Structure formats: C-alpha cells, structure tokens
Request: fold
Amino acid sequence: MAAPASPARLVVLVSGSGTNLQALLDAVAEHGPAGFGAEVVAVGADRTGITGLERAERAGLPTFVCRVGDHATREEWDRALTEATAAHRPDLVVSAGFMKIVGKHFLARFGGRLVNTHPALLPSFPGAHGVRDALHYGVKLTGCTVHFVDDGVDTGPIIAQEAVEVRAEDDESALHERIKDVERRLLVDVVGRLAREGYSIEGRKVRVPA
Reply:
C-alpha cells in the first residue's frame, strides 16, 4: 500500500475495554491526523455494552455492532461485518482486542490491510492463550507481535515485534499487563508508520520504508 495523500482512514474493531483504541485516539489527538498520518473514522464491535464503544462515543466517532448471534450463520455474520466496515472506506482496519476470527469475505476485502496484535513472539504460542502458554513453557523472553491477519490463527506476515522479560515471580496476569504496555506503544508506532510511509508485503516479509 502506498502512503495515502491525506491521513489514512482507520476502522478499529474492539471486543472489550478498548485500551488499544484509546492509545490510537491519544496519538491522533497529540500529533493531529496529519502528523500521525491517520485518523480513526469508526469503531466496530462484536457485542454491545463494552467500554471500547463508550470510548468511541466520547470521541464523537460513529460505531457499529455486528453480533454473531444476530445472524443465522457465521458466514452471514462475516458478510455483515465486512459491509459495515467497508461503509467507512478504511485504508487500514485495526483489530484492537477484537476477539472474533474474521472469515473469507472480510479477508477478501481487507486482506493485507487488517492489523492485529498478539501477546507473544509469533510464531511461538499462537491462539487465545499466548501469555499462559509462554509462562507454562518456561520461556525467559516473550513479548508482543503486530502482524497482518491472514486465514490462519496468528499466522499472518509479521510487521514488528518487541520482547518482554519473563520474571521469576510472574503469574499470567502480571506478565500480561507488562505485555499490554508494550502492545499499546508498538501498535501506535506501527499503525503510524504504515499510514505515513506505506508498505509492501512480499511473501512473509513486510517492508516499510525507513
């Protein structure tokens, strides 16, 4: 993707507290859309009554909710999510703690433009329990990965990673909180760079101009 002539349009997908969304909103507020290179134009969710939607509403952003249970099949849900997201004409879609796996329709529309974070150093410890699995395995370093989403589980091309030390006294909660601190900062940095500089995906390698 070439860098857009104007600030990139971001649609952010959330499922919970929306702390990654807030980090992006704070970065845009601090630098301005032109300085950051992007602006959040809408926030989507897979459920109602979550703090992430409240953050969006306080920021004056349009929101949409696509609940799996409101659709007869998972494929119908995927189509609905795709159309709701596409209505806001995003340059990039950010999965910011979005706890649903998107399907073939969403990836056909937004493949190579859907950014996700994972609380481990992929390809190690993919899936829903990356922090717990790394801790139980006994690694001394884990961390956070920002990657593009493909049709696998945490298998898409890696954009950036940062390590986090595992401490002897760590439990899952303590380790996850330190990873989240890194995750928020790394996601903001990556999204800003992708938006400002553009990028290319060559096989498994993501190249962002220096």
